[in-house]
Structure formats: C-alpha cells, structure tokens
Design goal:
Layout (H helix, E strand, L loop, with lengths): L2 H8 L2 H20 L11 H7 L2 H16 L19 H21 L8 H10 L2 H29 L4 H16 L9 H5 L4 H24 L1 H18 L4 H27 L14
Helix pairs in contact: 2-3, 2-4, 4-7, 5-11, 5-12, 6-7, 7-8, 7-11, 8-10, 10-11, 10-12
Amino acid sequence: MTTATSARQHDGLPTFWIVTFAWTFAFWLFASTLDEPAMTSPTLVPYLLGGFGPAIGAIAVRIRRSRRRQPIPAHTVRLRLCPRLFRALPMLALAAGTVLAAALLAELLGGPAVSLTEGRELIATAGGTVPFLISMLVGGPLAEEPGWRGTAYPRLRASMSRLRAGLLLGAAWAVWHLPLFFIDGTLQSEFGLVSWSGLLFTLSVFPMALLTGYAYELAGVAASVAVHFGVNTTIALLTLKAPAAQALVLAVQIIVAAALLAAQRNRDQDRPALDHREMADLR
C-alpha cells in the first residue's frame, strides 16, 4: 500500500479521535465536578450525554467524508439484511458465555456462588426487564460501537493486522473510560482508579476490543453491539465486582479472543479476499 493510499484509508481518524474525546471528556469532566451521583439530577444529563462521544465522532466523520466525496475505507462491512447478519446471535451467546464461565469457575475455586439476586434488584430499580435491557443496549453498545468498530476499526485495519488494530483501539477505549473513575455513583468510581478492580477493569477493555473487532468483521456493527451488550449485561446481572472474578473474566476472554483470531487467520489463508462489492460503508 502506497503512502497516499494509506493516508486516504486513514482519512477521518483524526476527526474521529478529536470529536469523540472532546465530546466525552467535556461532559464527563463536568459531571465529575457535580456533587450528585451519576444517575441523579443534575449529574445524569452530562453523564449520559458523555457516553455518546464515539457515536458523535462517527457522525462527524461521515459528514466530513460525504462533503469531500472521499472513498470508502478498506475493511468496512456493509449493514444489510442477509444470513451473515444472523451471526450476531451466536456472538451474543459467546460473549455472555465468557462471563458466565468465569463466574462458575470463580465459584468452583471457592469464590461467591453465582447468584442473580442483585441482578433482579437492578432490574427492579430500572423499572422492569424491558427498560433494563433497553438501558443496557443504549448505554454502551449503541452509543459506542458505531464509532469504535464502525468508524475507527476499519480505518486502522487498512494498514495493520487485526491484533494490532484491536489492541490500539483497546488502548484508546481504556483512556476514554478514565473520567468515569471520578464520577460519583459509577461502577468505575466504586472500583477506584488505583486498585486491583480498577486495574482489571482497564485491562478487560483489551480482550473486549479484540472480541468486538472479530464480531465486526464477522457481521458488522450489529455483531459488535451484540458482544458488547452480552458482556455488559451478564456482568451486571451476575454482579461480578470481586477482583478474583474480574481476573477470571479477563483470562477467559483473552483465551477466547486468541482462539478466534487464530481461527480467523487460518481461514483467511484458504479463502480469497472479499471483492469490492463486499466492501461498502456501514451506515
């Protein structure tokens, strides 16, 4: 790939990084100065708005590219109704399964028993199962995946491997979460930045980035949303906050991500590259 081609494929990344981080940090740093917890007024509004930084960044890139009539970056996956889209369902099950397997393993090793007691209380607090699931879908997966995977990932993949793109995006994702440690009432503030739980949360972003990247290449943003949703929701329902349980979730997801990437690399060696009709922009 020539320097000019590489630059074209990366075009939009600076806009995405600037808009995403500026939007999120502005709202979340403001929220951190308020005295009320994240889910209460007046902190609630900037707390929720800050989470949409990646989606706002994605919109900014698309507006910019549309005005400049720039080419579609390599490795994008078209959103369309086709059998491939249904691969999001097994990815959802796999993502939830990594968390459940870690929770069961923690119990087997002498940790707390797997329980949905606190999860039921969380559902009741949200107003029922449907509001809870909607909140888990919007707050995180839908607010972030169109940006991280739908916009940044294919531009990074234009010039680097899946592993490098996933790890680089994971590093950015980890930094993006940092203000949450300073907002009262968030899970991150409960962990504390300088603690085993805080460290494990930060590290957990990296295998998540690899898993969601794999899902994106499999079936687009719908699949990366499914992985994000499956992990977040299962962790919330099982209330996995103990460092030992977090460490096991991290270990299981690293193993699963490594296995999936290895299998994907082996398949690529036996399969021709997708033709240009399969490479279209994800909107």
